[in-house]
Automatic annotation (TrEMBL), chain A:
Keywords: Cell membrane, Membrane, Transmembrane, Transmembrane helix. It is a multi-pass membrane protein. It comes from the Bacteria. This is Branched-chain amino acid ABC transporter permease. Coiled coil: none annotated. The lineage of its organism: Bacteria, Pseudomonadati, Pseudomonadota, Alphaproteobacteria, Hyphomicrobiales. GO terms for cellular component: plasma membrane. The keyword Acyltransferase does not apply.
Length: 338, 409
């Protein structure tokens, strides 16, 4: 087994109750939710836009988390699913004049199909080999989007400009604020669905495969089916995130979905804590804000500063935000006793 | 009687005061980002990521405005130049530009770099009526005042440059068999279109091969071998710098001597000709609109002397062969000129109006005879180039200044 795989399998093994360890308690969830609902009322449109992007990337990170933390499979190809989702939404909105909200389920279904099909050949691969196969997908995607054959729909290298939706029913809200709440609603729905999925029979099957494939199949889990299913679900959620991203940024172009994005999402997952769904939002915040902080420290060396910060995080809290949360919980418990 | 006189006097005084105050009011007009003491200018450029070599342009512009501020600013106002990294990624560009507009509250966005990034922010800036001034890309679409009255280009468009090559070839080598190597993106395709437009009816008979490559390919040697097999006598190299150097080197290695014309984008002595090998690059043609910082013929040129002094003082240690320093200086000087022309009316509308009224303006770094002209219907500031031939270790200009204006679509 590769070293990378050890990290993944190790983390949940520490926690005896993986199902529970994947989510937050009700109290904490409500506090986070209240913060997410209230903050936009008091900040500038620009911050709202950043928070929208935060939620969108959090969704994409969570999708990867389901795949890696849930079923133990690697993917460096999430940017490809994100791109397919973004393009599906953009093309439906701009060429077919479809309502933006309706394009999202379509994007999700298209990506689910794409991910499920990609999962078939990926079945034969595991660990770093699977990571490499998905890496190939991510590198190929921007070029596929540039192909002259699709250019009529994709706009080729020029990309497509997407119109941002207004708030419906004449609500007195800016476009940004509406889009934020819309994204938040979609995000919460998907989060709840994902938590339930992982607590269900299928979720247990995912985790059984992650922990020990042979044991899982001995228990009657259809390993091939559930592995591809995990890929499909992950790709589907990433596709919805991509569609939302296209609407928020108002532009899709092949160069926006390079391998860089896939690596960022992977980074977000590790920083947030592999297998811990609420960590996705922390990981997403890391990939959005830390590059800005690094740039603030040194413009010429922003990449190096980012590297140092990342190194510190991995070194000090190897299990990411999840570790911080556990430590905080223990501290709180101690304080209560005293 | 007395009271009427008094009333008359008082009202006269009031009128006088009112008149002077409105006069003062009419003199100074500001939009967000401008005040009595400061003009806030925003910029995005890739300081990191695959295109980070262009970051030097942003640094040059920052240094240029520092020089302007040291000399007292523009009409007494200091320029506050806020520049962010977009890593050449469109989503990041949108985020950073929104930060500039909504958080830093800049008067205008100046010289944002890259076609994808500019496409991503164009609609936003135009809907907010914020100038997207002198964008750092040669795509032809920026000259579209009717649909995007808040966006303006700066450098010659790729299409006009390509047209100039086609026109020159038709005149000098009417029977040429032309092969085109182009990058498979908007950059390369703009050149391809310009070339075909330039050849006009002769395009089909003159161009015998169009070969494209992807920017992600590590080497383009295979493409060169393929082109050579078709045996053209002219090779048009529409590539970015790295591939330009590879092409010139590979043709020499194959012992093949077609007439080579390379884009202005890849005409840098330091980053293309030298890596390709000076011996291999002899006789290669290109076109230019700016002076080359590495070229000794400009040593006594007053404009380039100013440029050189600026670099020595504000950017010590700068590599003068890097075209980015020349580019950033010229673009920043053009903006300084526009802001100066705005006087005390620093509204966004007036900035665009003044930017569209540049007449025969010549920044220090442009070739003699190349002038910046704009109007309400011409948003393409630089549209002239001159042919040049590589000889020894530098470019030699020849022929007349050629104009390649492409009408706005």
């Amino acid at each position: 087994m590769s070293a990378a795989e050890d990290i993944v399998t190790e983390a949940p093994a520490v926690e005896a109750v993986p199902k529970r360890a994947m989510t937050l308690g009700y109290g904490t969830s409500l506090v986070v939710l209240a913060a997410l609902i209230l903050i936009p009322l008091f900040v500038k449109n620009f911050i709202i836009f950043q928070m929208t992007m935060l939620l969108i990337y959090a969704l994409a990170v969570m999708a990867l988390n389901i795949l890696t933390g849930g079923s133990g499979q690697f993917s460096l190809g999430q940017s490809a699913f994100y791109a397919v989702g973004a393009y599906t939404s953009a093309i439906l909105m701009e060429h077919a004049g479809m309502n933006y909200a309706l394009t999202l389920p379509v994007a999700g279904i298209v990506c689910f199909g794409f991910g499920f099909l990609f999962g078939q050949p990926a079945l034969r691969l595991s660990g770093v080999y699977l990571a490499l196969a998905t890496f190939a997908l991510a590198t190929a995607m921007p070029q596929l989007l540039k192909l002259g054959y699709f250019e009529h729909w994709t706009g080729g290298v020029q990309g497509l400009v997407v119109t941002k939706p207004d708030a419906p029913f004449g609500l007195p809200m800016s476009q940004d604020m509406w889009l934020y709440y819309f994204t938040l609603a979609v995000g919460i729905a998907i989060y709840i669905a994902s938590v339930n999925l992982l607590r269900s029979r299928s979720g247990r099957a995912f985790m059984a495969i992650r922990d020990n494939e042979i044991a899982a199949s001995a228990m009657g889990v259809d390993v091939a089916l559930y592995k591809t299913l995990a890929f499909g679900v992950s790709a589907g959620i990433t596709g919805v995130a991509g569609g939302l991203g296209a609407i928020a940024v108002q532009f899709v172009a092949p160069d926006g979905y390079t391998i860089q994005l896939a690596i960022s999402l992977f980074l977000g997952m590790v920083v947030g804590g592999v297998g811990w769904l609420p960590g996705s939002i922390v990981g997403s915040a890391f990939i959005i804000f830390v590059p800005n902080i690094a740039e603030g420290i040194s413009k010429g060396l922003s990449g190096a500063v980012f590297g140092v910060l990342l190194f510190l995080v991995i070194f000090l809290v190897p299990h990411g935000a999840r570790q911080v949360a556990i430590v905080a919980q223990q501290l709180a418990a101690k304080l209560k006793k005293n | 009687m007395l009271s009427t006189v008094r009333i008359a006097a008082i009202s006269a005084a009031i009128v006088a005061v009112a008149a002077t105050s409105t006069a003062a009011f009419a003199q100074k007009k500001y939009d967000t980002g401008a005040s009595d003491t400061e003009i806030k200018v925003g910029n995005i450029i890739p300081y990191s990521g695959p295109a980070s070599a262009y970051g030097v342009i942003g640094k040059t512009e920052e240094a240029y405005f520092k020089m302007i501020n040291d000399r007292g600013g523009i009409n007494g106002r200091k320029v506050n130049f806020v520049s962010y990294d977009d890593a050449y990624s469109p989503p990041k560009a949108v985020e950073q530009v929104r930060k500039l507009v909504e958080s830093d509250e800049v008067l205008l966005v100046f010289n944002p770099l890259g076609t994808p990034s500019n496409t991503a922010i164009q609609k936003y800036l135009n809907s907010k009526k914020i100038p997207q001034l002198f964008v750092a890309t040669g795509a032809t679409k920026w000259n579209d005042p009717k649909n995007f009255p808040w966006t303006m280009g700066w450098q010659p468009s790729y299409q006009s440059e390509a047209q100039i090559y086609a026109k020159w070839l038709m005149k000098e080598k009417p029977d040429a068999k032309v092969a085109i190597l182009y990058q498979n993106d908007d950059f390369g395709k703009d050149y391809l279109k310009g070339t075909k437009d330039g050849f006009g009816a002769k395009a089909a008979s003159s161009i015998i091969m169009e070969e494209s490559y992807e920017v992600s390919e590590p080497s383009i040697d295979g493409h060169i071998v393929k082109i050579k097999a078709a045996n053209p006598d002219v090779l048009l190299i529409y590539t970015t710098p790295k591939f330009g150097a590879q092409t010139i080197k590979k043709t020499a290695e194959l012992g093949w001597k077609p007439l080579q014309i390379i884009t202005n984008v890849s005409a840098s002595v330091g980053s293309v000709m030298q890596p390709a090998g000076f011996d291999n690059a002899q006789g290669v043609l290109s076109a230019a609109y700016a002076k080359d910082g590495a070229d000794s013929q400009w040593n006594n040129d007053p404009g380039m002397k100013k440029w050189s002094e600026f670099l020595d003082k504000y950017m010590p240690g700068a590599d003068k062969t890097d075209g980015g320093y020349v580019y950033g200086y010229g673009a920043a000087q053009t903006l300084a000129k526009v802001l100066e022309m705005c006087g005390d009316d620093l509204t966004r509308a007036n900035v665009m109006k003044q930017a569209a009224s540049l007449k025969e303006f010549t920044p220090d770094t442009l070739l003699p005879g190349v002038k910046i002209n704009t109007s309400a219907t011409d948003f393409a500031p630089i549209a002239q180039l001159q042919m040049q031939r590589f000889k020894g270790q530098k470019w030699e200009l020849f022929g007349d200044i050629i104009s390649g204006d492409v009408p706005s679509e």
